[in-house]
Amino acid sequence: MTGKILKTEPITEGEDLSAAREQNEAMAKAKTSLQAAVDKTITQSANTRAVGVVPSMKDGHPIASIDVLTYKQVRAIQQPLD
To answer: What is the largest CA-CA distance in the chain?
Structure first.
């Protein structure tokens, strides 16, 4: 309820570790911040609200997959980060 972190656990294996490594690689190669990618998406799309963003790699390039809410519908928009 407060947003305070109660507990942390290291990611040591499995799909979570693979996803974390891919996100880390994407951000290491990114020339644009996630905030800038979200801002660009919101500016280009009227009446939208960003509800989530995840960095990843696509065809060797870093991208941000931004989930936006538009009129009670969620959709993903991809923005390049390089």
So the answer is: 41
Please, are residues 79 and 29 in contact by the beta-carbon 8 Å criterion?
Answer: no
- CA–CA distance, 40 with 44 (Å, rounded to integer): 6
pLDDT tens profile 19-51: 999 999 999 999 999 999 999 999 988 889 999
- Residue ranges covered by each domain of the chain: 33-82
Per the structure block, which two tokens stand in for 28? 């290491």
Q: How many CB atoms lie within 10 A of CB 62?
A: 23
22-33 burial: b if 16+ Cβ within 10 Å, else e: eeeebeeebeee
Model confidence, pTM: 0.81
What are the E-state strand segments in 22-72? 49-58, 61-70
